[in-house]
Amino acid sequence: SFAPNASNLTAKATIPAGKVNNFIVWGNKGQTLKVSVSPTQNFKISIWHVNGTVLLSRMGDSTSYEGVLPEAGDYIIDVISAAATPTEITLSLSIE
Predict the structure, then answer these.
(1) Cβ–Cβ contacts within 10 Å for residue 32, how many?
(2) Angle at Cα 21 formed by Cα 68 and Cα 28, nearest 5°?
(3) Which residues are CB-neighbours of 69 under 8 A, at least 6 positions away?
(4) What is the mean pLDDT of residues 3-25?
(5) With 90 as the cut, is the pLDDT of residue 49 above it?
(6) How many angstroms separate the CA atoms of 15 and 2, rounded?
(7) Residue 47: which H helix or E strand, with range?
(8) Are 78 and 35 in contact (CB under 8 A)?
(9) What is the model's pTM?
(10) Neighbours of 20 (CB within 10 A)
(11) C or N terminus of the chain, fewer CB within 10 Å?
């Protein structure tokens, strides 16, 4: 959750080796979503609307995204680990 009057946040999670951690964010059509994950080595992100519309495919190797949301609703941000051990990640997110 965002703090009152804030449009960005930083979340931390420990992802088990080879697993995926999901974050859910709600945004309005036309807002700009910015997402990045660190560390970047052994991690990538994918982003999709709950109706199946893909903003960023997991087939790539992206660790960040910036784009205008095509519709209002919940978006799933998957952080995918290729690390050999459980690793703490930081997800930076803003919606404006």
Answers:
(1) 13
(2) 25
(3) 27, 28, 29, 30, 31, 32, 33, 55, 75, 95
(4) 88
(5) yes
(6) 22
(7) strand 43-49
(8) no
(9) 0.90
(10) 13
(11) N
Per-residue tokens: 69? 């949301």
**Strand order across the beta sheet in which 54-56 lies:** 20-27, 73-81, 43-49, 54-56
CB burial string 52-75: b at 16+ within 10 A, e below: eeebbeeeeebbebeeebeeeeeb
Average pLDDT of the residues of the chain: 93
For 66, the token pair is 């910036």
In this predicted structure, what is the pLDDT of residue 4? 66
Tokens matching residue 27: 């945004």
Confidence of residue 32 (pLDDT cuts 50, 70, 90): very high
Mean pLDDT on 44-48:
97
